């Protein structure tokens, strides 16, 4: 194992370059000093900015009342365990919805690209599906499915609010995600398809073994972004009466006449989103690094 | 399936008659191939030369059924492969293609690139396919890079991998589409050396190329294309040294001026 740092100066054949020149050392020290300066400027500007924000809010004429109804520590303490309990339901819905959305979205995308005249109606139905469910406001669909479907009183159709709410969310998000997958499939260069077909792979083998793996890799960042959006939209099942984090907040709020429980729920949702958002950033950065290796800009 | 026209003493591996291909454009359609006739016998190396846009690549793509022809016929071992009732996938299985830009699969390792078709198309078990692939990679000195991914290879290594990938299914015919055009000059030699070796092994090859020196030394037949027409064909010493056609002379003069011959 070489000493740390020596690798940097090793050339391709493993030999060592001579020590850096005066000029290079000067450049490095200048860059370091600029970097320190940037750090200080960033810290200072953050401090000034947040002070202004806090002072501006606190000095507002309605601040005492607002603080009372939105930031009451006693209400927050009472609400926290209940909201957390509700969040457990959101988490379970999220996991089920995410898995269903990925499967359904991918299936729709693939059915839209399938070839052959027999499949014409399938392609049409899939296009119609994405058009309808991408355009429909999620909350309207929640009402239609959550209240309309049980109203039919059909045998064997679930009436559970959570199941119906999850179904509505899956339907809307799958329409979005199928378009993401389709864009990914189309982003794979035609020469890849040509190379696979030239080897004798069939259309389906080409899609499965050559196009899809590359497509999925290309669309991982936007998919993670959709996951972040899904994470908070699972809170909308509360409009059907499912006792999730938002609904719990609503109940505590009604009992206390205070809005603080909503803030508690909001903070919990934000905390839940942070790891996924960082994961999405990381995946995006990695994808960019792959595409422009070695560039400084 | 229609038979080949006329009686021949032998059957060429590839026979092309009156091949026409047009591409749609905003103004209508542009003819790219205007009636090509070509025979390629077993073990022959045929090179296609001509300026960019003369139709060399299109001819190769039509032969591999990557393009639908607009007229004329192509026979592979006596079978008319331009017949729409022919299973195009089955035809492509008998033809190997190497592209100018390598077209390796970036998500697969070198080894997986080479074994993909043997395993998935020809049903060779994994161990056997990998053993055969390693043997081929060994021969071109890339066995140590078997687990590397295509973007970690040099252009020459990538193109040699692409050639091995095409050979792994033991094709009847190998089509090489300007396989050295994307390479740095110092990497061209290693790829041409491999093509030479493959040719010496008896492979039937049709190769579009700008490497006149290689065409002269390695080809059995040189074909000069211009504007979608096969203007002149014959042994390299004739076409490249004493061309009959004025346009061939002009083309070769330009190549010489560019220092490529």
UniProtKB/TrEMBL annotation, chain A:
Subcellular compartments: Cell membrane
SUPFAM superfamilies hit by this protein: MetI-like
Protein name: Amino acid ABC transporter membrane protein (PAAT family)
Source lineage: Bacteria, Bacillati, Actinomycetota, Actinomycetes, Kineosporiales
Topology term for the membrane: Multi-pass membrane protein
Family: Belongs to the binding-protein-dependent transport system permease family.
Domain of life: Bacteria
Annotated PROSITE patterns: ABC_TM1
Transmembrane intervals: 40-63, 87-111, 132-152, 262-280
UniProtKB/TrEMBL annotation, chain B:
Domain ABC transporter span(s) in chain numbering: 14-252
Keywords: Amino-acid transport, ATP-binding, Cell membrane, Membrane, Nucleotide-binding, Transport
Cellular component terms per the entry's GO annotation: plasma membrane
Database matches in InterPro entries: AAA+_ATPase (IPR003593), ABC_ATPase_HisP-typ (IPR030679), ABC_transporter-like_ATP-bd (IPR003439), MetN_ABC_transporter-like (IPR050086), P-loop_NTPase (IPR027417)
Bilayer topology term: Peripheral membrane protein
Locations listed in the record: Cell membrane
GO MF, one example: ATP binding
A Pfam family recorded for this sequence: ABC_tran
Gene3D superfamilies in UniProt: P-loop containing nucleotide triphosphate hydrolases
Family: Belongs to the ABC transporter superfamily.
Name assigned to this protein: Amino acid ABC transporter ATP-binding protein (PAAT family)
């Amino acid at each position: 194992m070489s000493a740390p740092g020596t690798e940097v100066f090793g050339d391709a054949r493993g030999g060592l370059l001579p020590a850096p020149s005066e000029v290079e050392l000067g450049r490095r020290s200048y860059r370091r000093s600029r970097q320190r300066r940037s750090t200080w400027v960033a810290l200072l500007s953050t401090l000034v900015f947040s002070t202004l924000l806090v002072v501006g809010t606190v000095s507002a004429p309605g601040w005492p009342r607002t603080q009372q109804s939105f930031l009451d520590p006693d209400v927050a303490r009472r609400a926290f365990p209940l909201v957390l309990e509700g969040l457990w339901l959101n988490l379970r819905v999220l996991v089920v919805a995410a898995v269903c959305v990925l499967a359904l979205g991918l299936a729709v995308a693939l059915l839209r690209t399938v070839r052959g005249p027999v499949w014409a109606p399938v392609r049409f139905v899939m296009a119609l599906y994405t058009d309808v469910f991408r355009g429909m406001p999620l909350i309207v669909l929640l009402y239609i499915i959550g209240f309309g479907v049980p109203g039919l009183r059909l045998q064997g159709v679930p009436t559970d609010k959570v199941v119906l709410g999850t179904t509505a969310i899956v339907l809307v998000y799958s329409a979005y995600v199928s378009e993401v997958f389709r864009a990914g499939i189309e982003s794979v260069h035609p020469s890849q398809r040509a190379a696979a077909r030239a080897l004798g792979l069939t259309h389906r083998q080409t899609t499965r073994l050559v196009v899809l793996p590359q497509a999925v890799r290309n669309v991982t960042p936007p998919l993670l972004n959709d996951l972040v959006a899904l994470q908070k939209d699972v809170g909308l099942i509360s409009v059907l009466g499912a006792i999730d984090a938002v609904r719990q907040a609503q109940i505590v709020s009604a009992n206390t006449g205070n809005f603080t429980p909503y803030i508690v729920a909001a903070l919990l949702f934000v905390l839940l989103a942070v790891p996924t958002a960082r994961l999405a950033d990381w995946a995006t950065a990695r994808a960019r690094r792959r595409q422009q290796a070695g560039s400084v800009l | 399936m229609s038979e080949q026209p006329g009686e021949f003493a032998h059957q060429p591996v590839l026979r092309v008659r009156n091949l026409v291909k047009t591409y749609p454009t905003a103004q209508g359609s542009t003819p790219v191939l205007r009636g090509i006739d070509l025979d390629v016998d077993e073990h022959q190396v045929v090179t296609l030369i001509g300026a960019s846009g003369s139709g060399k690549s299109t001819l190769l793509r039509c032969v591999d059924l990557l393009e639908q022809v607009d007229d004329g016929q192509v026979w592979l071992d006596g079978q008319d492969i331009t017949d729409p009732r022919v299973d195009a996938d089955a035809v492509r299985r008998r033809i190997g293609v190497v592209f100018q830009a390598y077209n390796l699969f970036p998500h697969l390792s070198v080894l997986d690139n080479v074994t993909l078709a043997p395993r998935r198309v020809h049903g060779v078990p994994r161990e056997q396919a990998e053993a055969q692939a390693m043997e081929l990679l060994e021969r071109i000195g890339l066995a140590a890079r078997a687990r590397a991914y295509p973007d970690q290879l040099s252009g020459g290594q990538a193109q040699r991998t692409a050639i091995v990938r095409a050979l792994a299914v033991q094709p009847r015919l190998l089509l090489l589409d300007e396989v050295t055009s994307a390479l740095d000059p110092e990497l061209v030699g290693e790829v041409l050396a491999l093509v030479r070796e493959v040719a010496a092994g008896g492979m039937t090859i049709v190769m579009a190329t700008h490497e006149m020196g290689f065409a002269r030394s390695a080809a059995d037949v040189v074909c000069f294309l211009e504007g979608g027409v096969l203007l002149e064909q014959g042994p390299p010493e004739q076409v490249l040294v004493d061309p009959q056609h004025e346009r061939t002379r002009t083309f070769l003069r330009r190549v010489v001026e560019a220092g490529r011959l």
